[in-house]
Amino acid sequence: MRVAFFVNSIESEEPNFSTTALAMAALARGHDVCYIAPGDFVLRPDDSLMVRATTVPAGKYKNAQAFHDAFQGKDATIQTIDVREVDVIFLRNDPSLDSDDRPWAAHIGAMFGRLAGDRGAIVVNDPSGLALAQNKLYFQGFPEAVRPTTLISRSIEEIRAFIADNRKGVIIKPLQGSGGKNVFKIATPDDANLNQIFEAVSGEGYLIAQGYLPEAKAGDIRFFLMNGKPLVRDGVYAAFRRVPAKGEVRSNMHAAGTAEAVKITDDILAVAEMVRPKLIEDGMFLVGLDIVGDKILEINVFTPGGLPEIAAMHKIDFSEDIIEALEKKTAIRNAYAGSMSNRALATL
């Protein structure tokens, strides 16, 4: 099986990324691995879709740093191949990272991913589903029971009124974004910083204001779903608590959050079950839920991270389970001679 990992750029990848863990797991299971980036597609006049794939020598790398160094160094080679020679394209880019400096690149994965799927590659998450999730409005399509009270607006008057109605405080963040960038907590509508925060965040477009959940002080739970179901092995769930740094609202790992083991309760499983039908309908193969109490703060469908942290805690590399699931999808695709849709294959 040849697996292509689509990333924002090879230069911006890091050894501790989940994409690195997934690529190493694929390589360890005997598969060919390559990386592709937004500028690497070529649609030729004969309608063939080509990709400029970056590869490294096959073999066992002693650790993630060595594997990462190989892709960044002279051992990496680039070859142009027909996408029909690729079994799986794993879309692992974060569109928000390109939205400012390279807006043309933000949704290339979904655009060309659809073309690759039409030519026989299995593309996950399903590119048509990802096109629906280009910003946090996607979250509003899930049941109200699992969502915090939410306002989406560019009106500071609307936001002040919303804050006044939510006595426990409000979290404000941009409609498009990730990694905890420009996330603020406002306690009252008279907060002296509100105007400044509004100007900073609204410069990126629409704002989301969500009722603050006091349980978030202890952090949120990153909980992985695969094929719409909790990712679990031997009774251990692919999950961990993201604990915010002292004085910090955000629990994102990029914002100095730390990872702790967490017990998965029936309430958490019930929340996951509530969102399962839509995730399957949209072809979302691998998803990270950010859960506080009985609510979901975000549904990460592009680049959910945390697999290396989970492996360090539990000595279980869930990357292996994810690659094994892709192997099964490839076998099903071959057995059905391409008659199954990519969206159906994505969550089987």
Automatic annotation (TrEMBL):
UniProt-listed InterPro entries: ATP-grasp, ATP_grasp_subdomain_1, Glut_synth_pro, GSHS_ATP-bd, GSHS_N, PreATP-grasp_dom_sf
EC number: 6.3.2.3
Top EC class for this record: ligase
Key words of the record: ATP-binding, Glutathione biosynthesis, Ligase, Magnesium, Manganese, Metal-binding, Nucleotide-binding
One of the record's GO molecular function terms: glutathione synthase activity
Domain ATP-grasp: from-to ranges: 136-327
Highest taxon listed in the record's lineage: Bacteria
Cofactor: Mg(2+); Mn(2+)
Catalytic reaction(s) noted: gamma-L-glutamyl-L-cysteine + glycine + ATP = glutathione + ADP + phosphate + H(+)
Pathway(s) it belongs to: Sulfur metabolism; glutathione biosynthesis; glutathione from L-cysteine and L-glutamate: step 2/2
Family: Belongs to the prokaryotic GSH synthase family.
Protein's recorded name: Glutathione synthetase
UniProt source species: Rhizobium herbae
Upper classification of the organism: Bacteria, Pseudomonadati, Pseudomonadota, Alphaproteobacteria, Hyphomicrobiales
Gene designation: gshB
